[in-house]
Amino acid sequence: MKPSDTLRQDISFVTSNDGTRIACASMGRGPTIVRAARWLTHVSRDPESPVWRHWLAELSSYGHLVRYDLRGCGLSSRDVPEISFEAWLADLEAVTSKLEEPFTLLGMSQGAALSIAYTFRHPERVKRLILFGGYAKGLLSRGQSDRTQIEAATLTNLMRLGWGQDNTAFNQVFTNLFIPDGTQVQHDWWRSLERETASAEVAARTMDVLHKIDVSCIAAELNVPTLVLHARGDRRIPFEQGRALAMTIPGAEFVPLNSNNHVLLETEPAWSVFCSALSGFLGDGIPLAGADAGITTAEREVLVLVAKGLSNPDIAAQLGKSEKTVRNQVSSLLEKTGLSTRSELIVRTLSGPMGQTP
Q1: Which residues does 279 contact at the CB level (< 8 Å), separation at least 6?
Q2: DSSP label at residue 20
Q3: 288-352: CATH architecture
Q4: What is the pTM of this model?
Q5: pLDDT tens-digit readout, 212-229
């Protein structure tokens, strides 16, 4: 990937209540979307990642995207005295402490449970809740059978032995839990991220906490518009956990996705379904192109900024692209939508999803 294609972002740090420094990244403009911390992120590397870049492009097209690295991971403090669910919650509170308006909170994987706990504690701060590939109960909280205890202990012990190492059985199994349908390039990126984002000991301590999560009781008490999405073939978190989560939260909308991946990849059909559900749920954001229009994620980034009235030079500066690239993408948008002018493109985007008659 060329450097000019990397999404632009600002990185800063906040201090949690125990002195831990948490690395935060922000991109985009408009209503705020906060992505609660999940595992295997590195805010400085994600914008160029073949696994995460399309997520960032999609989410930041709706507004101001704020995300951060888990304590002990990425650019956040590595040598941390405490790794616990309460500590993670305190970190999220520190990240959001300066946000003045209610925001959309996105929780992926264990970030879903964290988002639920935050919303329960601060209902006035969360405008909407999006939960993807999440669960209310960790592995050991779902039952104390011999099988689950052995599975939990085995995974944690294997982490201490194989985390971040090349050509290990653990490395291959762990990567396949998250992106089994990924390309070799994506698998290699995932493995390199293990080495760069956390030590084996931090990974094992983090996994121990994940196994014991249980927010099922407070999930039933939430009163906020909620969208739950889960891949049917998710190998990391069983589909049944996502469905149970949607059934527990009052009024939650549930969208099953036909994928085997815990992290959706841009090339799979489920990604377009996810984008469509996101567009419908966020409502007051700009309606974006559906899969039928054949518009790419990169073009969608440009489209949302065109609709906001930005010029090609301004769009190029914000997205870190050349003006020629932006000009070509605007031309492609006009061709794909059958429109003739930039003004028509803006009107169609604001009036309804692209590819449909307004």
Answers
A1: 285, 287, 288, 353
A2: -
A3: Orthogonal Bundle (1.10)
A4: 0.78
A5: 999 999 999 999 999 999
